[in-house]
Please model this.
Amino acid sequence: MISRRLLRIKILQALYAHYKSEGKTISQSEKDLFFSIDKTYDLYHLLHLLIIDIMNAAIEKIELARHKKIPEHDDLYPNLRFIENRLILQFQDNYRLNKYVTSRKLSWVNYPELVKNLLHLLEDSAEYRTYMEAENSDYEADKKIVIDFIACYMADYDDLHQAIEEQSIFWNDDIEFIASMLIKTIKKYRSNHKFNGPVFELFKKEEDRKFVKELFRKSVLNETDYRNLIDKYTVNWEIDRIAFMDILVMQLAISEMIGFSDIPVKVSLNEYLEIAKFYCTEKSSNFINGILDKIVHDLRRDKVIIKKGKGLIGDNSIN
Model:
């Protein structure tokens, strides 16, 4: 279940690539867009696999210690709590996860040092020590250590970011979103799941796939009208002097506000202003907010923006 925020980012990236690639058709760019979303779904499964590989690295470490020439007590009688983590064992047995990983040939086999370093990172954490030293352990504790590691350590780990970028240009900005998606998945796991643990679908619902296709196409097909609209409300600016990414963010926002009657204007505005903070210049968010505010006011007045559905009647009012 890829979030609407990440889908909007993917559409923005596809729109940028479309305009920067001479002679590319809408259909070709749309195909690339959905390919990038499929790659994001690969990453979701790869992060599951990475957790399994970290556990396997811990097993290998224990086995090596046991076979020392002169093993110590802890080498012979290690704490097995982590390698018996019930959640990770469920990952390992998950039929849908294994089927997808096998069909897509996903693996961390070329990154053994990354897996070992992540294990060290885990073992050095206060959360891990608390987990391993607790008098009793239950299924919820097994879930919590994995969630804590993903949220507090793994998602921000520079070496992981580098490894992900090496594998696919489509994953450069995905890790935090997908880590969040994995945590949501883990929270849905129950102790009685055996081979059928939850795996989110690529799209939460069919409307999300339709949203991606329509928003991209509407933005491209109405480019001239929306660029003229932006030009009209940037009185003191020539449009070719405005940062290209700023224009694309506004173009997408306008397309969504006009083209999707079931999405509140406030939601669209907030989403694109947040995206602008990461993909545009430092001052872009305020600039874009000011321009879009004027555009929305006049489009509502002229009945170009019309919202329909439960709770959206007031969204048509002029502020």
